[in-house]
Amino acid sequence: MSTNKSATGQPIPPSPVAAGGARRHRLLVAARTLGGTLGAYGLTVQITVTVSFVLARIGMVRVEAVTAATLASFAIFAAVSMAVFHASSVLRAWLWLVVTTAFLALSGWMLGPA
What we know:
single chain, mainly alpha, 3 helices, 78% helix, 0% strand
C-alpha cells in the first residue's frame, strides 16, 4: 500500500491544486446541503400554501384544506430534498428551487383571501 511519504519518511503535503479541489468540493456539498434543507423547506412552504388555497377554492372546508396540504407537505419535502441532491449541478438545483418558489409565492399571493 502506498503512503504519502517522501524517501526520508516525512509526510508530503498536499499540492495546492488538490487543496483547491477539496475546498471546491466542500463548497459544492455545503451548497447542496443548504438547498436540500433550507431551499426544500422554502419550496415546500409555498407548495403547501398554494395547495391549501386551491383546495379551499374548489370547495373543501378551509381547516381540512390546510390539514390535507400540511400532511402532504412531509412527502413533498422529502421529494424536493431528494431532487436537489439528484440534480446534475448545484446551479441547476438552486435555479429550480428559486424559480419554482417565486412562481408559487406569486400564485399563492394571487389565490389568497381578499
